[in-house]
Amino acid sequence: MADKKISSLTELTSPSSSDLLHVIDTSGTFTNKKMTVGNMVQNVPTWLAFKDAVQTVNTDGAAIDASTSITHINSTSAVLGLTIANGTTGQIKFVTMTVAGNNAVLSGANIEVPTSITFDAVGESVTLLYTNSKWVIVGVYGATVA
Predict the structure, then answer these.
(1) For the chain, which domains are there?
(2) Max CA-CA distance within the chain?
(3) Labelling 13: which of 93, 113, 120, 121 has CA 20 to 30 A away?
């Protein structure tokens, strides 16, 4: 295997926590070491960020997508009635009102009870987790949940 470039190896798309990663330790001299995927995930030595595009919704009847991590609500033009697309088990979604003018109400059968979240001021936000075929509220700031 020493004669293969890393870019030539077969990609592992569903790693297990016991799979090994190649690490170059830069403390002192550069040394090749190994680490399990589980150890890396449990001990991330820096901050984490979501780097995908941010969705902005500003139209009544719009659906919040499940393909981005963050959605901004802009309700300057009208009262917004919003829904949210189904996600993938374990997915986390952040929804924040960034421009207010009118209320925005997020509701739908795929949101665990309670099923209505109303945003009416800048900064109001909700964190959702998709599990058991529903979005579950795991955190809310300022928004009204009913």
Answers:
(1) 13-48 (no CATH), 55-145 (2.60.120)
(2) 63
(3) 93
pLDDT tens, residue by residue, 13-71: 999 999 998 888 998 889 999 999 988 888 888 877 888 899 999 999 999 999 999 99
Tell me the residue type at 97.
M
DSSP type of residue 68: S
Rounded Cα gap, residues 17 and 36, in angstroms: 6
Among 98, 94, 91, which residue's Cα sits nearest to residue 122? 98
* pLDDT at position 69: 96
Q: How many CA atoms lie within 13 A of 45 on its CB side?
A: 2
